[in-house]
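Field: COMPLEX_INPUT
Field: COMPONENT_COUNT = two
Field: RESIDUE_TOTAL = 1087
Field: MODE = joint
Values follow.
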Amino acid sequence: MRSSPSVLFLKAIFLALLFFSRISPAQIQTIGPGPIRYPNASSTERYPLTGVVVDAATGEPIRHALVQVSIEKMHSVFTGDQGQFEFPKLPAGTMVLSIVKPGYANVRGFSSRAMRPLMVTVGPNAQPVIVKLPRQAEVFGTITDSNGNTIENVSVRLMRVQVEEGVRKRVQINQSQADEEGNYHFYDLVDGDYILSAGPSWRDLNDPFAPGVVPFEYYAQTFFPAATDVATAATFHLASGKNQQIDLSLSTGRTSIVTVSVAGGNPQSTTVNFLNASGQDVTVLQRHVTREGFIARVAAGPVLIKARGNDGQGGMLYGETTIDASSDVKDVHIQLDHIQIPITYEYQNVTGAQVPLLQPPQLRLISLDPVHPDAWAQTTGTPGNWNYSFTNIEPGRYRVEVPSNDWFADAITSGNVNLKTDPLVVTPGNSQPIEVTLRNDSAQLMIKVEGADPASQSQIMTVVVPEGGGRPRQNTVYSPNQSPVLSLPPGHYTVYAFQDFDDLAFADPEVMKDFARFAQTVELQSKQRAEVTAHVIRKSAQ
Amino acid sequence: MKLRSVPLVFMLAIAAVAQNYRIVGTVVNGANDSPVPKCQLAIRTEGPEAPPRAMKTFTTTSDSGGHFVFDDLAGGKYSLTARCNHFNAQALDEHDGFSSAVAVGPEKDTTNIVFRLAPSASITGRIQDEFGDPVIDAGVLLFRRGTSLGAKRALLRSRANTDHGGFYHFYRLPPGEYLIAIIAHPWYSQYQPPPDFSREDVPDFDVGEADLNLTFPVTYYSGATDSASAQPIKLQPGDRATADILLSAQPAYEIRFPRPEADESVRRTTMHEVQTSIFGAPVDVHSMVNTMNNGRVDVVRGLAPGDYIMQTRNFMPAPNGASNTADESRQIVKVSNAGAELKQTTPSTPVTGSVELDGIRGALRQTTIRFQKADGTVVDTRTTANGALEPFHLFPGVYEYSAFSQQGVIKSLEAANAKVIGRTIEVADKPVTLKVTLADFATKITGTVLSTEGKPFPGAMVILVPDDIEHNLNIIRRDQSDTDGTFTLRVVMPGKYRLIALQDAWDSAWSDSNFLAPYLPSGITIEVPPNSPPIKTDVKVQRAR
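Field: COMPLEX_OUTPUT
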């Protein structure tokens, strides 16, 4: 079936809502979205769309930028020498414009979270569009030893500190090798806070595993300015268009030799990783020496050894142990085991309504460790006799998330651990079930927003924080100034509205404490449809 | 001494004889003879047939004057390696995979070794388009004019991709003549399907819009689009060259070709590789391949005008579940603004065969037979459990053949429907059947290279040149003489040879019969019978002309 343009556009709006809920407010200046009119391609009326693309900082025109609008097909024009562009004939309506130019933060429809959608209105009285593109930042420098001698071919990593779902995270975004003179260069960076590290580096003609060998040149992974653990690394800010030089001097490090045997899995599939407390891999060199045995040279200090393998029947096996590798450690033994955590559901039909419940909400584990992926619960069995569980997940710490629909999670427990507030600690061999109690008398909250800056193009975001811990709910306010939040369990909540905030770590109570005096509190009863007015907290007004 | 890649080793006690010899020397920068401090130097015992685990490694570090000392050594041969900042790790007097081992013993002066480090060069450049934008992720191909299997030609040395600034950087390059070719697409290049003319209300949106179906032709430094006009970059030791290149977008074209009529009973997969020939080397072009019209037509898009080699493989499921190549064909297609023109279609020739052992005890272990063309293309096939070769395909042409076996070397290769001369086989269009016989009948030749005054001559290139060299390139044997002038040539096949030793010839076309002709008359004639005991002979060094 071919979707009509208006259906496509509604899909676009829906995508935009999803999209806005994940990203920071747009910084670009445009003519406002205004009242939405759906493009009507079958109408014969055509209008030009003109505009100019300029550098956000200098106002200089940007030439040969690609400007595109998608309506029935992709329409493409390049900007001229004065940054000007013109689509000669477009149908009237509101549509998404994308602008791409190497070296600039791109505005590219809905295709990626790093880019922001830009809505334009085409019609008889359309004004020219002015698009200001922020220039990307760069960072470059030289890696040396403590005497200032350059270190060649060392691996250099760049992490960005960014907020994902309200949680501040370090995300590795770039990695490269320094050249033969220790130089590195990263391009195309959006403005933000970064962490730079280099190393480890090992250069020696000796057998690395010969007993008593003192490494000729070993440099530990070092974080700018001089930390060897990412937890104590400093961040630096890169503003748009900044070309920042950051040189890094690596500290020489001590290493230890560790021998490990891993039993219980298919030996060909078994791998081991050596991590420090921050989850960094601290392996200098590793070798598989026997069927089940490994030898590794690792940075000296406390080390978490994680082993994984498979049972030969598609099932994953895990094992881990922590050792003190301040000096050589011999004969560490790790036994691999399955991880299977069953999930049981209990229903409290408070309303007594005949709710057809096909599947309970699917649980999700959000990793709280830097090295693990998130995981979804699995369903096995036959209709009417379903089993739910987490299998093949990495050991570690997780936050358990239960999506709300008609039924919401009133309680989530594992033994006597309250998983609404505390993390789930997954260990090999663990089979303590997760028990979920579901209820169906959720409330709704309509948040009316007032005090927004009408001149700002930044999005307004609402955050609803349950009292006594638990996951906040975040929404992006789309026109008009109200935001519905559905499926809220009865209870006490604090309600916030924000404008102009990039990367707000709203899931961090410490961060939210600063805004408490601007917030509204509300108590929701079973099945209540409540309304609250939230005053917008603006960064510019702080 | 031939450099062998053995892992750095565990120390094992070796019965010490007279532990009173020394190796004393200086590490210097080969470009200006200045001493190089803080190098890590390693020596490793170099028994000719010593198993890696019986070797012993010692290390030391050069002082501020570049001096180094290894004391209390037993007599014997040691490989000497240096690892210094800003230089490649390298062995003493290293050339082309060979180096001079240090011979230690009575009446051997090893107290004045000069370790001359070969300084390497680099090439850096930026690739930009005609609007001054960096070309990101462009494929940069670096060719070096060198010797390959006898001839001097441009050889693909490495491939890099430009970073987000459009920069590329090749370093640790030996001196020589380099050529650079770029394969890239514009950042804005997109394929747009043509308007659907079956609809009546075709919107007239296209007036004044930009064509994004553009690409960059293969471009050579310093901007030419034909390889004959490529400008070589000459690098001296330690040079840092800059080679920026400007690319200019052109309309992109496509090749369409129908698939073979589908046989519903067989599930098969078709793969296309689009290659272009750059200095004789086939290089993959990253273009878009689409299948249209319900799988009946394949379209390769985003191609600049020029000649392309389209390699098509049809994979059919094999009974055991593995995917075997069922057939293969190669088409040469000329792409221009007039469309795509098929210039030549070459189907591949199926090859089957078997491998036997002659005079080797035990059963045949898995063996790989390799066929290599002069342009560097390699086709490998392996033996199966019963000694048959896995069926494979070769395109018509001349190949050198060789074997990878733990049990022996190729004694003979007989072929039905193909011409075998020396160590080459010429395949035509008729299916070929091979019979390969392996034997353990090779030997070794040892000796000393002598100067015209009759003194041991280190650092010479020793070459064992077979008769009819054009058809026997892969049985040429080479070595570099050690500090006491001695050399060892291993795995020497039975046959007739001339043995020569050349001074200052490391960058020459050492396997080209025209280059070798003037030196052969002064060489030593050696006839090696099958299963010969080791042969010992000295050879006089000749100065390369």
